[in-house]
TrEMBL record:
One of its GO terms (molecular function) is homoserine kinase activity. It comes from Paenibacillus roseus. Its main location: cytoplasm. Residues 205-272 form the GHMP kinase C-terminal domain. Belongs to the GHMP kinase family. Homoserine kinase subfamily. ATP binds at P90, L91, T92, R93, G94, L95, G96, S97, S98, A99, S100. Pathway: Amino-acid biosynthesis; L-threonine biosynthesis; L-threonine from L-aspartate: step 4/5. It catalyses: L-homoserine + ATP = O-phospho-L-homoserine + ADP + H(+). The keyword Protein transport does not apply. NCBIfam families: thrB. Its EC number is 2.7.1.39. This is Homoserine kinase.
């Protein structure tokens, strides 16, 4: 085991990108940091940032459990750990906070153990834990990922996000558990809807892979999850229908929601108009929301080792200047 301290910076993600339900994901320029080292004595867990109050700090903590999975897989005994985490990624809003936590804990523990597991092994463990590969894949590989999971094996291709496109996310001020948003979906779909999604998701991937940005607005349309989840998010249907009239290239529900994602050209003169439209539409439905401008994040986790004099510095001290809060 490495006795140094590792800090891993992990991007948030937006899943589905419209029609690519449980398949497509994109990493975003919003981050969480996990600080991990082998403890001299007992495990200590510190969680910083909004919404962390109710998360356990004992060995039932997800970060601790995920790290132990890596040690077990590598044939190592359970380790007492010092863990600290700070996250700018809001919880249960559809921006992949749990995926970032899982990926961060896997990558940090793998580093402490001397990198026994491959990225593919980490991806498989992360997908199994999350139940779908889209968010964890984006956080692990950066950029846009196209992934297929058959319950056993997970494959992916990473695509470079198109240049010159910015993302606006409108984050409603309420939580929506992925579990609940998945329960809103039907058990069966008509052949028309299945064909609709296969064709739009395929077209979206082909458009992204070949630089046909002009096709994104036609391809980013979904009939598998967005129509059913719209009932859980007042204002969503109107935003998906009308944001194009306010400068957006396209819009989608981010993951399981409730965050809404809008794409717009980076040099568009209509960014303020689009932002107002999203916030006013939600506001008119009584939904308070916060808007954040983001870019695709092109890389996966960034690792930094701390030892010697830097070994004593607190996580917040180390990342200040980088955090949003
Ligand atoms: N693909 C998943 C869903 C993402 O839409 O339920 C959850 O973040």
């Amino acid at each position: 085991m490495d006795n140094r301290r590792i800090i891993v910076k992990i991007p948030a993600s937006t899943a589905n990108l419209g029609p690519g339900f449980d398949t497509l994901g994109m990493a975003l320029s919003l981050y969480a940091w996990i600080d991990m080292s082998i403890a001299d004595e007992e495990t200590e867990i510190e969680l910083l940032g909004n919404g962390m109050e109710s998360i356990p700090r004992d060995k039932s903590n997800l970060l601790y459990k995920v790290a132990q999975l890596v040690f077990k897989e590598a044939g190592l005994p359970e380790q007492e750990l010092n863990i600290a985490m700070y996250s700018d990624i809001p919880l249960t809003r559809g921006l992949g906070s749990s995926a970032s936590a899982i990926v961060g804990a896997l990558v940090a523990a793998n580093a402490l153990a001397g990198f026994p597991l491959t990225e593919q092994q980490l991806f498989t463990i992360a997908t199994r834990l999350e139940g779908h590969p889209d968010n964890v894949g984006a956080s692990l590989f950066g950029g846009i990922i196209v992934a297929a999971w058959d319950g056993d094996r997970v494959d992916h291709i990473r695509l470079e996000p198109p240049a010159g496109i910015d993302m606006l996310v409108a984050i409603p001020d309420f939580h929506l558990a992925t579990e609940k948003a998945r329960h809103a979906l039907p058990q069966q779909y008509s052949k028309q809807d299945a064909v609709y999604n296969i064709s739009h998701s395929s077209l979206l991937v082909a458009a992204l892979a070949s630089g046909r940005i002009d096709l994104i607005r036609y391809a980013m349309k979904d009939r598998v999850h967005e129509p059913y989840r719209a009932a859980l998010i007042p204002g969503m249907s109107q935003i998906l229908r009308d944001a194009g009239e306010h400068g957006a290239i396209s819009t989608a529900l981010s993951g399981a929601g409730p965050t809404l994602l809008a794409l717009i050209e980076s040099d568009s003169q209509r960014k303020d108009e689009l932002e107002r439209f999203l916030l006013d539409t939600l506001g008119n439905e009584g939904v308070e929301a916060k808007s954040v401008w983001l870019k695709p994040c092109l890389t996966g986790p960034e690792l930094q080792w701390l030892d010697g004099p830097t070994g004593e510095i607190s996580l917040m001290e180390w990342i200040k200047g980088e955090v949003k809060a």
